[in-house]
């Protein structure tokens, strides 16, 4: 991360078991997020059990990392609940197991109050771009997300605390 910028750690939710971001999921990625107010970042290392060929990260895991950072970017920066509608991933360079990585997500465009286009990038420890993605996310206000069964009241309380950060 840029040493001249100030970054804030976002506090995660405590009542979930998400593969991408929960510290309660023993087989997940356990991603934590930081923000500079314009983008979200996550520094991580992919564990051995998520490999594809030999010591390389499975492409589905790379896609999950990119989807997760885009999703949390939309949640935090747009203050909305989300569901991913589509994602397109470009794999540019092998991503190796156990090596330091940085994921970055940001808002590319807010189409309207119900949809946004997001961008994400995954860099290796040298800062080389290894994969990138674009995604279209559906945006929901809390009442709609609860009515559709996407979240419940506890999720709303957890995430509204994040919205206030």
Calculate Rg over CA atoms. 15 Å
The whole-number mean of residue pLDDT values reads 88
With strands numbered from the N-terminus, the spatial order across the biggest sheet is 1-2-3-5-6-7-4
What count of helical segments does DSSP give?
Answer: 3
Beta strands, count: 7
Strand count, sense and closure of the main sheet? 7 strands, antiparallel
Query: What is the third-level CATH name, the topology?
Result: Thiol Ester Dehydrase, Chain A
Give the C-level CATH assignment: Alpha Beta
What does the oligomeric state look like here? Answer: single chain
- Structural class by secondary-structure content: alpha+beta
Q: How many domains comprise the coordinates?
A: 1
């Amino acid at each position: 991360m840029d040493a001249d910028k100030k970054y804030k750690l976002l506090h995660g939710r405590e009542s979930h078991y998400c593969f991408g971001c929960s510290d309660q999921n023993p087989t997940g990625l356990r991603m934590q997020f930081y923000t500079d107010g314009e983008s979200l970042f996550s520094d991580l290392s992919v564990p051995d059990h998520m490999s594809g060929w030999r010591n390389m990260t499975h492409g589905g895991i790379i896609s999950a990392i990119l989807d997760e950072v885009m999703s949390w970017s939309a949640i935090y920066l747009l203050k909305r609940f989300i569901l991913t509608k589509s994602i397109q991933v470009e794999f540019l360079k092998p991503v190796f197991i156990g090596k330091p990585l940085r994921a970055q997500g940001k808002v590319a465009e807010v189409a309207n109050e119900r949809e946004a286009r997001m961008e994400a990038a995954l860099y290796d420890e040298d800062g080389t771009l290894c994969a990138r993605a674009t995604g279209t996310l559906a945006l929901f206000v809390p009442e709609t997300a609860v009515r559709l069964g996407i979240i419940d009241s506890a999720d709303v309380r957890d995430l509204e605390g994040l919205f206030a950060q």
